[in-house]
Design brief:
The protein is of the alpha/beta class. It has 4 domains: 51 residues, no CATH class; 176 residues, Alpha-Beta Horseshoe (Leucine-rich repeat, LRR (right-handed beta-alpha superhelix)); 177 residues, Nuclear Transport Factor 2, Chain: A (Roll), CATH 3.10.450.50; 52 residues, Orthogonal Bundle (Helicase, Ruva Protein, domain 3), CATH 1.10.8. Helices cover 32% and strands 16% of the residues. It contains 17 helices and 16 strands. The strands form 3 sheets. A 7-stranded mixed β-sheet has the order 3-4-5-6-7-8-9. Involved in the export of mRNA from the nucleus to the cytoplasm.
Length: 505
């Protein structure tokens, strides 16, 4: 915080999205958002003038660059920041000690200069794989916490021969360094004063394979753990309970016409009572191995009806489009698309269909309602832009189909809800997906079943993922009331990925 301003460090992708909120109204005030290069100093509130960098500051920056150059090993992709108090260059600059007061000034400045050496995030990821902070006399990481913001993707970190006494001394890096594979904490008091620290450390860093030169997980175990975290609830195979192939025929026509002739699609299945909405989910989880660039959301943003983001009645109502004309106007402003072919690329879809009783009868002859269908389709599409780059998006679309009004199409869309998110591979059903409906075999672990049920209850009450619900229960001795109390007391401290996508903590 600086006066009425809030300064945020964010990735280039997030900066692009955050900047779109410039001039939005929030709490009765107009937001003013501007991006600054890493290391530059934002102006004070109300000022837009840039301050010139002093000659002395420029000289200091060049000295830091020279020091970093001598400490970088290109073959190992290692940035060696060990024993900084003994560095000749830093001693010459007057940094003769490396205590808390010195690190609070020196290290952040050093990280700013290091960050400016790279043009892109990918270039930085490729160049710096390992970092050493050994032999620096650190009692905690508060003075060097900027490392996690500057190099969040490192795989190897050496913290040996410091003065870390317990887990609290490195807790600031909990849930940071999500790619960390090797961590060295040898020759620190924590080894003797907290002998079981490795158990907690493994929870903090899900990709960790080696701790203090000992293998704690195999690559296969890491992959299995991450898969379990990404899909805490088994994904069942599609359940398609159609009626006279109405659902199948609708989906086949919808996909083809939405890509080729949206007006014909509207006249075939929509009427004056059909309702349509679009919601953008920018916080959906993505696998790092498939983190393709996310195209801009400009074409969809003004139509998005994400009720987590929209809290005012006006926008919520205005972005619920009713009738052919209103829907046609929205669709005409959206990019052209190409969905995978249902016949040859069916693996890119998960589609479910179920009967849905109690729909309003458009003829008015059945006060108790009529039967219809609810169809949910998950998949992807490619936007047909003028650029040569593919713009892929993942989507989930839910339709409610019912009988048409007299004189109209026999089938009509009652409701059409489209959810959009950044592209990610479709989560496929587990091989064990359908065993939930079967009676458990005699040797099923009853205690494990009870724990899973308890974790499910905590997930439902809190919105946490399975991983965090289990952690919370483990730390409270599997006592559900105490686990819920612990969640209430610490919910503001939990990271965003502790919650199921789309559910606020």
């Amino acid at each position: 915080m600086k006066g009425d301003s809030v300064i945020i460090t964010a990735s280039p992708e997030d900066i692009e999205q955050i900047s779109k909120l410039n001039n939005f109204m929030f709490a009765g005030a107009t937001l003013r958002i501007k991006a600054y290069e890493r290391g530059s100093t934002p102006p004070s509130a109300g000022s837009e003038e840039k301050k010139a960098v002093s000659q002395s500051a420029q000289e200091t920056k060049e000295k830091f660059r020279a020091i970093l150059a001598t400490r970088y090993d290109g073959n190992l992709k290692l940035l060696n920041l060990s024993a900084l108090a003994q560095d000749a260059g830093l001693l010459e600059m007057g940094f003769g000690t490396f205590d808390g007061k010195t690190t609070s000034k020196l290290f952040p400045a050093l990280m700013v200069v290091a960050d400016q050496l790279f043009k892109t995030w990918q270039e930085k990821r490729d160049a710096i794989v390992s970092v050493s902070l050994a032999n620096n006399g650190l009692s905690d990481v508060s003075g060097v916490t900027a490392l996690a913001q500057t190099f969040p993707d490192i795989k190897n970190l050496d913290l040996s021969s410091n003065n870390f006494k317990d887990l609290k001394s490195i807790a600031s890096w909990r849930w940071k360094f999500r790619s960390l594979e090797t961590l060295v904490l040898s020759n620190n008091p924590i080894e003797t004063q907290e002998p079981n620290f490795n158990v907690e450390i493994m929870k903090w860093f899900p990709r960790l394979q080696n701790l203090n030169y000992v293998q704690v997980r195999t690559p296969e175990e890491v992959a299995a753990t991450l898969e379990a975290v990404n899909t805490p609830i088994p994904i069942s195979g599609p359940d398609f309970r159609d009626v006279s192939q109405v659902g199948e025929n609708f989906i086949r026509q919808f996909v083809a016409l939405y890509d080729s002739d949206r007006n014909a699609l509207l006249s075939s299945f929509y009427d004056a009572e059909s309702v349509h909405s679009i919601a953008i989910n920018m916080s959906a989880p993505r696998n790092r191995e498939h983190s393709t660039p996310v195209p801009g959301w400009d074409a969809y943003m003004k139509h998005s009806r994400n009720l987590v983001k929209l809290t005012y009645a006006g926008p919520r109502l205005n972005r619920r489009y009713k009738g052919i004309q209103a829907i046609q106007q929205v669709w005409s402003e959206l990019p052209a698309t190409r969905h995978p072919d249902l016949a040859t690329e069916s693996a890119k879809y998960l589609i479910e269909c179920h009967p849905l009783p109690g729909l309003a009868d458009p003829s008015g002859q059945n006060p108790g309602g009529v039967d219809g269908l609810i169809i949910t389709m998950h998949g992807e599409f490619e936007e047909q832009n003028t650029s040569t780059e593919k713009a892929l998006r993942s989507f989930s679309r839910t339709f409610v189909l019912g009988p048409g009004a007299p004189g109209g199409s026999p089938i009509r869309v009652v409701s059409d809800m489209l959810g959009l998110r950044a592209w990610a591979p479709l989560a496929m059903p587990s091989n064990q997906a359908n065993i939930a409906t079967q009676a458990p075999p005699p040797n099923v672990n009853i205690e494990q079943q009870q724990k899973e049920a308890m974790a499910g209850q905590l997930m439902e009450k809190t919105g946490m993922t399975m991983e965090f619900a289990v952690l919370c229960l483990e730390q409270t001795g599997w006592q559900l009331p105490q686990a819920f109390d612990a969640f209430q007391q610490n919910r503001d401290k939990l990271p965003p990925n502790a919650f199921i996508a789309g559910i606020a903590g």
